[in-house]
Amino acid sequence: MENHTAPAAEEKLELTPETSELEALCAAVHPAVERAGEALEKRYYERLAEEALGPKWPNGKPPEETQALLDRVRHVSGKAEEVDAATAGLEVHHAETVGRSKGVTVFLKPGQSVDESRDVSVQPVNLQRAFVALCGEEETRQ
Length: 142
Hints:
By secondary structure, the protein is of the alpha+beta class. It folds into 2 domains: about 15-55; about 65-140. About 45% of the residues lie in helices and about 20% in strands. β2 and β3 (about 100-105) form a beta hairpin. The protein starts with 16 loop residues before the first helix and ends with a strand.
């Protein structure tokens, strides 16, 4: 029976020009894949944002229809029970709860408002947050 052993550590393998070229190519693959992935990710998110937000607005202002939508969207936050009471009967989107705190985005219909007599914070919403809220689940508070 023949005894096959690994080469001793002090023995060096002879590199041919082909193996050297292959090692150089392999060493360049990982950084190239990372750069390509970053570029693709950036293009994906830029395109997604353009689709969500539309083209750049003249004078930096959204069209009237978009502004009308934003004028009726609010973010309401505070203790969960206060937020639930303040948004009762409203179209609620994108609820986030952390411990006893809660934040929701509401879309108001004409004549509706958030009950600001409750201990809640009511803030206007930018288009990005409104878009994210619309992509989530909707619920109507009773």
